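Q&A FORM
Asked by: J.P.
Topic: structure of Peptidoglycan hydrolase-like protein with peptidoglycan-binding domain

PROVIDED:
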Amino acid sequence: MIIKGIALSLALIGSVGLASADYAEGMRHYEQQAYREALQEFGDAARRGDADAQYMLGRLHEAGNGTAQDFVEAHKWYNLAAARGHRHAADARDSLAERMTAGQVAEAQQATRGWQPQAPPERQEQTASSQQQTATSRPDIESLSDRQGIAEIQRELNRLGYDAGPVDGVMGSRTRSAIRAYQADMDIARNGRASADLLKRLRQTEQEQVAEVSEPPTMASSRVALQDDFSDGDYRRNPAWTVLSGDFEVDENGLRSIVAAGRRSDRDTRDLSTDRPEELGLAVLELILEQTSNNRQGEGPPPSNPAQIFVNAPVDNAFRMELELASRQRPGSLQLGLFQGNRPNGTGYRLVYTAGARPGLSLIRLISGNMEVVARHEGQLDLEDGQFHRIVWTRDENGRMQVRVDDQRLLRVQDNGLRDPFQGVVMANRQGDYTLRRIRLEE
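REPLIED BY: S.T.
REPLY: Here is the structure written out as tokens.
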């Protein structure tokens, strides 16, 4: 909940506007995994009221990067960033609160109430007209070289909450991804290109506009259908997961599944070749369907044996699923999704992650044995960095779906092919080493 006193004090300070030099320097250190230096730079900007820097401080304290892990401090910075309208901070704060005790949350809220920005005197005395003058004093677009133009685009993207990386004028994959994410939010062509028209539009875009169009509609009410962090050490109870095939275990990090590459028939080798990992995810689903068909017709064992597990968790057609996942090897493929009826391998939606491939993430619809890709992230998605990654998948009552990975929206589509409620969650590991640390499903 946004604290009125905080909101008032922040409003008196005024909008930070352009991302500060401290924030840009902090992002440069963060990209290089120099977390202590990033902590210092973000701290300087955050104490002056920079919402982006406050959000990044929250991430550093939550993960324990560059400092001791401190959920109370992370919650405080997320809360402050949310009060300034940062588009991801409220979700990050609420997700973190689920892992905290009531006492820790109360302590963090108290720290938030007592916080005051440390703006320099000249900033406090700045009037609305001087703020406007600062905004209009940005370099003229026509006078910029190509490298300068890219640097200005990076600066504006970072200002709006899109992680474009260091403001260095180099057009890398991170900057392209940030451009595509912005273009998707603005419902314009997703070409990932830097241009004068893009820079002009970025300069005219306010953070409030981005937050309004990027966040999925808020549901009128919610009910938690599934919540499990496997802290009891047993996936068979509270709630009860059921293994369909393969091996699963619970260790100190969560529910783990390891499937090594095995011998395959000629057909399997063609479909699941490690030389073409981009086809692995789709081939896995074909094999699952083939397994169901073969078992039903008595034609013998399936050609492969993925590790599969499911849990019954009835949920409405509109849902929000949040999970934390770690991947430790590639190539490989993991599917996780919702199923309808009493067949976990049957009708439903599946997210397919294919490690180290393009597309790295696909959203697939299964109906009566027919499979269709309804959305895909064309870029490569690398989760094999030793970290847990947060995935949020939402669907509203109109069939609009979004999938975010680490607060970056990778998929957005409207699909009304499935209108009935879902019965539960299914996960299938065909090849790889994955750990599911936490999952929450609500309608």
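FOLLOW-UP: Residues 162 and 178 are 5 Å apart (CA to CA).
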